[in-house]
Amino acid sequence: MKRVFILLAATLLSISTFAQADKAKFFIEGQLSTPNRAGEAWKLYNVRSQGISFTNSDTIYGHDTDKGVQLVFEHASTTHPQGFNCGLKFYRWQNNSGRWQIDSEVENAEAAFSQQKVMSIMLVLDCSSSIGDADFVKLKNSAKQFIDVIIDKSDDGNVHIGVVGFNSMKNTKTFDLRPLTRDSRKEMFKFIDELELNNRTAFYYAIDQALDHIKVYVDRLSIGKDKIYDGSYVIAFTDGYDNDSFDPKIGKAAEGVEHKYFQHVNRRIEKDRIGGAQIESYVLAIRGNDVDRNNTDFERVLSNLSHNTSGNKFYSLNNFDKLQAAFEEIGTNLINKWQSIYCYIPRGYDGRVRWTIECGDVARKFFMGANASIGGIGDYIDRKEVEHKGSVIAAVGLDMTFPVTDLISVGGYVELNAAHGIGFAFAPMAAFSFPNNSAILLGIGYRGADRFLSNGFLMRAGYKLPNPWYITASYSVGKGNTFMLGAGYTIFGRKTE
Question: What pLDDT score was predicted for residue 222?
């Protein structure tokens, strides 16, 4: 019997590895070509993906590393709820079987913040009196949270951050650009905390100053041979129209897109190149007390100052409670732009390859769990009209399910039990999965116990916890009703963190 269980488990597990790749919702796939002679590069062509995006073309070139041939997919992002946190598994296409086969000896692909890219960011923060003290604290906390989102992914100094705090032109203050590290983070936070509210709003002037600071800084920045300058970013917040910016060569700021100071700043964002890279800008706006709620020009003007490739250009917010989430989203968007997927393939292989994200995809995994339970058998009379007193019953069992949809898996339960004698149970079973890797197990079948003198219709239920453990309860109706409670441990199908 033990050999049968092992063979069945191995068969189902083998089938599940094929199904996992075939039905994957998040993958990168391509045709791999090994170089024919020295000096040629490995090439992955006919590249396609689902649920994962990147900026490379349909042909990716690889190079040899100690982990195998490395392929890099630039500016990678995914719509998977857990992102790239659990890595990407590598599969080869098996022509003889017409299925995907996982290669467990190949290093899992993973996404990482690119250590070859250097970028600069200026935060431009409105400090006008119309914000109010309580909301000003929320603005400061949101800006600091943005910095924390970035530093969580890169604290090695490749990201350079500065801050402009403005109200009037005279009171505009600047924290010069510098590499973002754990130490400089403290200095940035101190600068932000010490910003103060005052009258007037020199929004265009503040953005102009931010662009000047980035240009001067990047022109002097020494970038190593193994790194590239990837871009300049302005993240600006205001709660009202500009009413203070002035330059004799440009003129005075005024409402509307036709005015010269607006056009000057807008043109700089669109046309200037810093370090050879285009400037990208994000604008966040809340209608302050000095902006008419029915004034449609307010959003039209500010949205025109937003220029980037991420899709989320302009954030029009109803109140300051939503500001932190908006800053976090922009930070996440930037991180997605800067991260790359590093994939590895074995040397000397030609053919189709696929990398899939599988973390948290509970319904698409074969599940096997071992469990133990204990309970009691009630009094009963057997076929020979011999009376048997109730007794304690203990059992060990095996649960197995195989996915058929995103939510439902089917399989079975087998049990070996002992009371006064040996017995067994079996039950077809269904599992209903949840995104957090928990599941409900339900089954009906037959239980024979106490040398099969007590037997009956078996009903069984269980709950699989988000961790590897699960709990069960069963009740069988017949001669000597039996009730048992048990606990099990997931052998296959555990969540990959």
Answer: 84
Q: Structure tokens of 411?
A: 């399989």
> Could you give the number of structural domains in the chain?
3
* 311-314-317 Cα angle (round to 5): 125
394, 487: one domain: yes
- pLDDT attached to residue 384: 76
CA dihedral in degrees (197, 180, 204, 165; nearest 10)? Answer: 10
- Please name the amino acid found at residue 108: N
Q: Are residues 127 and 268 in the same domain?
A: yes
Residue 139 domain-assigned (yes or no): yes
pLDDT at 310: 61
CB atoms within 10 A of CB 491: 16
Across 166-188, b (16+ Cβ under 10 Å) vs e yields bbbbebbbbbebbbbeeebbeeb
Which of 209-218, 279-288, 297-306 ranks highest by mean pLDDT?
209-218
Query: Length of the chain in residues, anyone?
Result: 497
User: Is 206 in contact with 93 (CB distance < 8 Å)?
Assistant: no
Instruction: Indicate if the pLDDT at residue 41 is higher than 90.
Output: no
Contact 185, 156 (CB under 8 A): no
* Residue 382 CA to its chain's centroid (Å): 59
Q: What confidence score (pLDDT) does residue 8 get?
A: 41
Q: Are residues 294 and 384 in the same domain?
A: no
Does residue 335 belong to any structural domain of this protein? no
Give residue 294's pLDDT: 60
Rounded to an integer, the average pLDDT of 426-455 is 88
Q: Give me the percent of the chain exceeding a pLDDT of 70.
A: 90
Residues 6+ apart with CB under 8 A from 224: none
**Which residues sit opposite 234 in a β-bridge?**
122, 281
Q: Which helix (H) or strand (E) holds 264?
A: helix 260-271
